[in-house]
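Render this sequence as a predicted structure.
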Amino acid sequence: MDPEAEIARFDPMTFAVRDLIGASQDLVVRMARAMQMNVTDMTAVHLLSEHGPMGAAELADRLGIRSASATVLVDRLEAAGHVERTPHPTDRRRVTLTATAGAQAHALAVWLPGLRLVDEVGRSLSPEEAVVVRAFLERLTAAMDRAGRPD
């Protein structure tokens, strides 16, 4: 089937999800600006805050960048006071990266107003609606996690 014809047959929900993804991407850019960072730097701080300390190679892998780029990124974040390097607990040749408390607090302060708005929308749903929407979002998240990955 012709790709344009296939897209024309998509469910309206697909386009609503596309719009949500676009709004989310725009929000990320605005939040990065508010944090006076680029999106990759903000994402790195988020990953370290969310997943805890990790090495530069793991951070590079999660960001989808090369290790040389990660080194430059970490140098920049460390100089700005957003990331700390500490010796790895078991391997003296490696270092562990940690988001500073200040970076985490700043990120939370920037993101909290938007999170409150999302929470407000979620709380406006009836319990029955919330169950359906949550299940849909969980299935959608799983599908998006699979998209573009090798089989």
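Summary. The two ends are 23 Å apart (CA to CA). The chain is about 70% helix and 5% strand.
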